[in-house]
Amino acid sequence: MGFTPEILTLISGALVGFSLGLIGGGGSVLAVPLLVYVVGVRDPHVAIGTSAFAVAASAAINLATHFRSGNVKLRCALAFAVFGIAGAALGSTAGKAFDGDRLLALFGVVMIAVGFSIARKPAEVGEPDVELTRETAGQLLPRIIPVALGVGFLAGFFGIGGGFLIVPGLVYSTGMPLLNAVGSSLLSVTTFGFTTAGNYALSGLVDWGIAALLILGGAVGGLIGVTISKRLAERKPGLSYAFAIIVIAVGLYVVWRGIGAFF
Prior knowledge:
Elements (H helix, E strand, L loop, with lengths): L4 H19 L3 H13 L4 H25 L5 H22 L4 H21 L16 H22 L4 H12 L3 H25 L5 H27 L3 H21 L5
Helix pairs in contact: 1-2, 1-3, 1-8, 1-9, 2-3, 3-8, 3-9, 4-6, 4-8, 5-10, 6-7, 7-8, 9-10
């Protein structure tokens, strides 16, 4: 006997939460295909809006767990999130005008490129003591602001929390180690996701019942993901390779499922 849609949604939420806890990303990128192809949500835009809300909530839960573990560079994370919100609002407005299946396929291509980039240059070490202060603001903010705006726009446009882009964006703009970027990215995933979800909710494109089940499953999966993330970070460059493999694999799947929209 097959699983009910409710059970499938809980399992999907657990996978989403696990990915967020493990690598700080993959929330909506996993949630959207799971909602469309596993749970059976027919409208890709409803899947995008629903997943954006659920992933934002799951990211907030995982953020608290990473924060307690000391993995969050709070000031860097806040700066990235604040400047990314404007980009996410603009991007989500533009994204609603495009075909949902094509958006999935295009983002799959972006994911593959990001995955290969991280695999070529593991980021476990970095600058563990980097902090955004009055003394370092002149050096860090000129790098953080444009990257955050760009990542926020792409996150909103593709209807994702953006962790797959935020994590390398934080590493690039601040030089922090990958584990800190994973934890810190979840603040931006939360704010970008709620911004995108709010925009979609105004158009009636959020299924609140499905979102609640995704969040419930995500709370369990997230605890497991955070624990494994810390262990992989200790086995350099285990976390970088795990990030790259997951991003590339999901990207290939998303491209494969969405490429038919171009023909």
